Amino acid sequence: MAVWIQAQQLQGDALHQMQSLYGQHFPIEVRHYLSQWIEGQPWDGIDLENPQEEIKAKRLLDSLIQELQKKAEHQVGEDGFLLKIKLGHYASQLKSTYDRCPLELVRCIKHILYTEQRLVREATNSSSPVGSLMDSMSQKYHQINQAFEELRILTQDTENDLRKLQHNQEYFIIQYQESLRIQAQLSSLATLPPADRQLREPSLLSKRATVEAWLTREANTLQKYRLGLAEKHQKTLALLRKQQTVILDDELIQWKRRQQLAGNGGPPEGGLDILQSWCEKLAETIWQNRQQIRRAEHLRQQLPIPGPIEELLTELNSTITDIISALVTSTFIIEKQPPQVLKTQTKFAATVRLLVGGKLNVHMNPPQVKATIISEQQAKALLKNENTRNDSSGEILNNNCVMEYHQTTGTLSAHFRNMSLKRIRRSDRRGAESVTEEKFTILFESQFSVGGNELVFQVKTLSLPVVVIVHGSQDNNATATVLWDNAFAEPGRVPFIVPDKVLWPQLCEALNMKYKAEVQSNRGLSEENLVFLAQKAFSSSSVNPEDYRNMTMTWSQFNRESLPGRNFTFWQWFDGVMELTKKHLKPHWNDGAILGFVNKQQAQDMLMSKPNGTFLLRFSDSEIGGITIAWVAENPNKAGERMVWNLMPYTTKDFSIRSLADRISDLNHLLFLYPDRPKDEVFSKYYTPPLCKFATPNPDPAANPTYMDHAASPAVNQPHAYGLYPPIGDPMLDADGDFDLDDTMDVARHVEELLRRPMEGQWSGQQS
């Protein structure tokens, strides 16, 4: 139980990684309640590539279910009753999931245990997360390189043994020919006179006996050599398979996971150079051993000696072919994914790469790759090896591409530069599912041979899930589907199943990653921001982050059901904030000038303790992609009383006319950015320089009053001069006391009018 006890002590990112190992495919409760039993089973003793091992896997599955049922039966009391039902449900669920494919359960548990051990080891090695990661990577690379060195030595050893075997066999054949020559001489003695025959026969018989005795001994020696060589090859292939599992099932899968998270704005997945070098070393070592096994088979055929070697060599040849097949098919990967929100009739690109293409000389006869769009159901059928017979769910233009070999980098890849989805055929949707929740995938497939047509491979790989849209208005909801899938997809899942609900901290991590990437900022979402989002998501008033740690959010809450009292979902609101910030507010967000994630009541509480003219910027609760200014000032209707004012929200439409900084500059009554920074100190570097050089048609300011003449603040002694702050009952104020600047004196219209008049005057002067 040691690993599980230590795994429960993990913190931060390591804890999140550990939690992400579990889901519907293997619930974390099963790991917890059967931890001792799970860690005591011989999972490593099962060869996942050998179908005959399925019997062992089935026994382990049955034992796991029995243990779960026993655990469920022993639960008593009120709490025990619920746990009993839950564990019984998990037993049925695991049986249903893995009964037909028990090896997948073994694969799943091996991956969980391996990852837990790695995470625990990393956490133990260093108290610093960065140091731990670097130490872990360094240690991992060292182990991989050490294994390659061991493989090199083993392969060289078997090469030497093979040469020695060949030399001994050649000498054996020479001696065998000598025995045949002696036998021929003995046979020819029959034609000689008896005296000559008696003279020569004893010597020849002695020679024959000596040679035959030597041949018998040497035949046994050769058989031992052959068996010894075969056993060494078995050891080499076992290490090869283990090394290949580390590289393909751990390193390559992790790269693909990083690629998936990069689709949500995570850090780049990194280059493939190290992975390719490892895969090429594997390919080279596999091919050398394959050639050795074939040469050993040739020697056996050249000199058949009865014994088990024929069966052993057949088994070795089958194993090495399986290993190289797994390597080739697994290293046909998508280096650059197609866009996951894919609009019809729009050009898109993708790149596929064969990591072992150069080493296996596949480029000598460059293969062609074909791209097809298929549905989720078709992807499931494909992975089950069901006959789909070129089924597709749409038509892609320019969907064929020849793989090119790049000599300088040693890469073999196909660059699809001008694909376009001409049409899409949708399937029948389930329940409340919308078109923007329907997932497709791009299937890339090819065929090529290696070793002079000795082996022919048909390779296929699926892109990350793709949501197809026909109009830009669908982009928002399609992005939600992609975000959820990229963040919460579990390793080895059936396409493209994702959990229906996730822990709030997991969702926070995904939202923060997306936000930082979209806004292109190192300033992510703070704990206070995430509490605000939790309050919005769960209609809660709690400000304690711990209250949300164990709460879960469903997909429906995320982007199906509207927020209470609104006509938009949680995601649609959040996406609107990202879009507004990305397009118009990025520098102000990076400067820390925008608090943003603050509700109206919080803003009021914060501002009422500050001097008049203090303001803050917060994202609108009532409008998608809106930001409002809240400030504290005197109440014009009650002397000596102060109140907080809220402008009607500005949106992208407003900022495309006049920037936030200029709008803040225009409002004289805004003096200090919360808590106490003079507004010009924060925003002046973003002000648009005044265009004073144009002649004004009418220089009389009274004839052409500017907006600033009207922008008196309630904080100064002329609150009623122009009726900017009318009584609360005024129809220009909303129900919450907000007012719409557009309905009073829109900054943009006045500024545009002022800027337009001199130009019009100049043009008319030139024309007249």
Task: Walk me through the topology.
Blueprint: H1 2-7, H2 12-19, H3 28-33, H4 35-39, H5 54-73, H6 77-98, H7 102-125, H8 129-188, H9 194-262, H10 273-302, H11 309-330, E1 332-336, E2 341-343, E3 347-354, E4 368-375, H12 376-383, E5 394-397, E6 400-402, E7 404-406, E8 411-424, E9 440-450, E10 455-462, E11 467-469, H13 475-488, E12 501-503, H14 504-519, H15 527-538, E13 552-554, H16 555-559, H17 570-590, H18 600-607, E14 614-619, E15 627-634, E16 642-646, H19 652-655, H20 660-666, E17 672-673, E18 677-678, H21 679-683, H22 707-710, H23 741-745, H24 747-767
Parallel strand pairs: 2-11, 14-17
Antiparallel strand pairs: 1-3, 3-8, 4-6, 4-9, 5-8, 7-8, 9-10, 12-13, 14-15, 15-16, 17-18
Helix pairs in contact: 5-6, 5-7, 7-8, 8-9, 8-10, 9-10, 9-11, 10-11, 13-14
Structure description:
It is a single chain. The protein is of the alpha+beta class and 768 residues long. It is 52% helix and 13% strand. The protein is built from 24 helices and 18 strands. The strands form five sheets. Strands 1, 3, 5, 7 and 8 form a five-stranded antiparallel β-sheet that branches. A hairpin with a 4-residue loop joins β9 (440-450) and β10 (455-462). α8 (129-188) packs antiparallel against α9. The longest helix has 69 residues, at 194-262. It is elongated. The model is unreliable at 127-134 and 692-768 (pLDDT under 50). It holds the Pfam family STAT_bind. This is Signal transducer and activator of transcription.
